[in-house]
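Re-running the complex after MR caught last week's input typo. The corrected sequence lines follow. Everything else is unchanged.
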Amino acid sequence: MARKHVPEEPSGGFGFETRMIHAGAQPEPVTGARNTPIYQTTSYVFHDTDHAASLFNLQTFGFIYSRLTNPTVAALEERVANLEGGRGATCCASGHSAQILALFPLMEPGDEVVASTRLYGGSITQFGKTFKKFGWQAIFADFDDPENVRKAITPKCKAIFCESLANPGGVISDIEALAEIADEAGVPLIVDNTLATPYLCRPIEWGADIVVYSMTKFLSGNGTSVGGAVVDSGAFDWTRNDKFPSLSEPEPAYHGLRFVETFGDMAYTMHSHAVGLRDLGPTLAPMNAFLTMNGIETLALRMQRHCDNTQRVAEWLSQHPMVDWVFYAGLPDNPYKGLQEKYLPKGAGAVFTFGVKGGYEAGLRVVESVDLFSHLANIGDVRSLILHPASTTHRQLTDEQRQAAGAGDEVVRVSIGLETVDDLIADLDQALHKAAGEVDRAAE
Amino acid sequence: MPEAAAETRHDDYPNAYLLGILNGVRTIAMVGASPNWNRPSYFAMKYLQAKGYRVIPVNPRAAGTEILGEPCYASLKDIPDRFDMVDIFRASDAAGGIVDEAIGIAGDKGIRVIWMQLGVRDDAAARRAEDAGLQVVMNRCPKIEFGRLNAELSWGGFNSKVISSKRRRVSLS
Ligand SMILES: Cc1ncc(COP(=O)(O)O)c(C=O)c1O
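Corrected-run output:
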């Protein structure tokens, strides 16, 4: 059964650019403040004891304490949910906490999540090592052939997890095929859409059930704020089997309330706030929510320029004599070009890798020789960034895992920013020449 | 306005249609209201009361008792007062009978709207109600729609689908 379902019109017919500016941000009614205020407060006054009881029992909408909900964070949540075409969103302190929150309503000790070997290195470590402490087992599979995913699913599997556009490999997941496999197995497909953003790809439209973000990257956009988000499509029926008792069965901490019965298609997002944020506690600070909302207001403009600049830099690098290979899904010979045209037709994003002639040493020299690029461990900034994954972000992995993740010895990762593209090309050119010179000298 | 009602698309109600109902209605008969505080109907009743609606519970098993301060009746026709809307908190296969009962007493009681809860849908019954001049909403929750259209749903991180630069008026409740 093909599952491409275009969700119900996410916002009354308004276009993406209108929604990235207005969704979640009606004027504040008391003062008329046009920009969303930063509600720098921990807690909220009750009208009376009955109002307090209604709030604690989840019988009315409202704010109790900012670990669970905060008006500035809620405005951002609505904006992200709207752009993604989801029912609701839960924002949190980081992309990594979003991954824990996303799985939390689904997993019990002993349960499994089938995850791609191409996940961001930090996610491989989180899934493979830290989740074990919760009794959650990550089963890694090569998602290039979706049949591998089908084979990895056991009765204990509660979710399938991949990145739409993987960091740093530029690998693209066949979301539609994976959604079909997840549907047959009766489990949700969770897609990390960090590198694509809803401007380039909306996984829910291809059948994904849950989308997670590191908002640290392109959504905030200026490298100001660490943050994460979990977006629920609202389309998964948590009562279709007995795999998800946290959502379908009575919740002891709320006097036997059943989330699905009480909140319908809002159950997952309600649970993520009322139980997930309440008990795990990775709350997003209101200031960071504000900065991220400001970032999203220019998302379409930024992402298109990111893609255009990146395409130019990748094409130029692929002709460079000191470069062995360039791996960017926007290049015509890239194996993921077909999937890029299907899932990310506006562009292949801003992050890619290339192999420098001269291996590990040459890779190190390049990142030390740039002047305009910033040598740091992040992606998705207006500034151009560069990194040698093998010696930094992917250091904790085994050689085999590094290769699978596209982070071998000679690999340099760049995240192309919004500077004048000719300046970026000039900077990489001088760094590559410097690196080649030093490697040659060392060989003499 | 039967003509307009007959054209209602029951998969996708315009915001203005739902707002028109929620702003026009004052008294709601809730069929299937539960006296049990952790049931969804109790949540909805309590919320709607807090927003200024009078909600009259209908539930044969709780008839003669009070739910949230309101006397509970066994059926719609037992309600002595007039009411604007019937909110059906029952399974879909029970909805048709309730709709027919409501149509029969609509003129007498002043019923203008039939609202079927989230998960409750009966298209044939909806057509009968519309033919009788009633407005119909199916598979929605008035609590959720009230919250959505008044920006309260947004407080929980939900996509209200409302885009507007109008400043809402704050009522002193
Ligand atoms: C694809 C992807 N997912 C998740 C994360 C983790 O996000 P955070 O650093 O905000 O915790 C990152 C961070 O680099 C990432 O690139």
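None of the earlier attempt is carried over here. Chain A has two domains: 16-296, 299-443. Confidence is low (pLDDT under 50) at residues 1-7 of chain A.
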